[in-house]
Design goal:
It is built from eleven helices and two strands; from the N terminus they run ααααββααααααα. It is mainly α. The protein has a single domain (12-304), classed as Orthogonal Bundle (Farnesyl Diphosphate Synthase). Strands 1-2 form a two-stranded antiparallel sheet. Helix 4 (92-115) packs antiparallel against helix 6 (143-167) and helix 7 runs antiparallel to helix 8 (205-231). The chain is globular.
Length: 307
């Protein structure tokens, strides 16, 4: 049996391997399901799988696992036995965490479509790749139009498969009901932030900062943490403590990405990012969460800081 340690800088690879195992098996099953509908349909799942395994740190799954572990044995647990130790590769939290990676994949595919990007994670973007496939196979369609349309379908399907994986993760209905609130909030924030960005509404620093938090930060750190915590039966005070950590760290994460990509009208600097990281790490002091999970979250926060 493979143990899943509390997620931190040293164990992120271990959690990634476990989540990737879940994704690989699940996507294979989904391809088989679609193949029963039509022999051509699995190409959409194949495209999702191609992009998923082209790279990515699996940070969202890692924060989801951390959120679940944060409740274990803490004063914030409604029902501590429900948050059993993660000591099996097929633990339900790993399936729930993997669902968040599929949701992220949807966001990546749709983001590339909106930006007209030709590359993602060092490989062709979905639209570019699928257009090339149409040309190679001599399909009786306009390759570029097909690539764009098929990529849109692949992104939509990634969201559907994410929902199904979360709902069939193995948690009881009460746990899932609690998690769906945070899960849907992630998607609402992401859509609102992306709209501010593509509509050019985020031209002033204040709105640009808000757009950065919504379109990336909320669904990178805060949302995954709260999904995991809800699945473990967290009390309201524990959720508050996780929010106090997740909101500034998520904003720091998005601003860091923007600075690396030379994007954003928010005027953020590395000092801005580091101050947000300090705020997040400070929120862990006295937080009503499992001490080992707090240490792991502190390690993950330190990885976001800029030099």
């Amino acid at each position: 049996m493979t143990a899943s340690p509390v997620v931190g800088n040293g164990s992120l690879d271990a959690v990634r391997a476990l989540v990737d195992d879940v994704l690989d098996g699940y996507l294979r099953e989904c391809a088989t399901d679609l193949g029963r509908i039509d022999p051509a349909a699995p190409m959409l799942v194949d495209e999702i799988s191609r992009l998923v395994f082209a790279g990515g740190k699996r940070l969202r799954p890692a924060f989801c696992v951390c959120g679940y572990r944060a409740v274990e044995g803490s004063p914030g647990a409604l029902d501590p036995p429900r948050a059993a130790a993660i000591d099996l590769p097929d633990h339900p939290i790993l399936r729930a965490a993997a669902a968040l990676e599929l949701l992220h994949t949807m966001a990546l595919i749709h983001d590339d479509l909106m930006d007209g990007a030709n590359e993602r994670r060092g490989v062709a973007s979905s639209a570019s790749f699928l257009a090339a496939q149409a040309r190679e196979r001599g399909a009786p369609v306009d390759p570029e139009r097909f690539g764009h349309a098929a990529a849109l379908l692949a992104g939509d399907l990634a969201a559907v498969l994410a929902d199904r994986l979360l709902l069939t993760s193995g948690f009881d209905l009460a746990s899932l009901a609690g998690a769906l609130g945070a899960y849907h909030e992630m998607q609402l924030d992401m859509a609102a932030g992306q709209l501010l960005d593509v509509a050019g509404m985020a031209s002033d620093p204040g709105t640009a900062m808000r757009a950065a938090r919504l379109k990336g930060g909320s669904y990178t750190v805060e949302g995954p943490l709260l999904v995991g915590a809800a699945l473990a039966g967290a009390r309201e005070e524990t959720v508050d403590d996780l929010r106090a950590f997740g909101i500034p760290l998520g904003e720091a994460f998005q601003l860091r990405d923007d600075l690396h990509d030379r994007e954003g009208a928010h005027g953020a600097t590395p000092a801005t990012v580091n101050e947000l990281v300090r705020t997040a790490r400070g929120a862990l002091l006295g937080a009503r969460i499992d001490p080992e999970a707090a240490a792991a979250l502190d390690e993950l926060a330190a990885m976001v800081a800029m030099t």
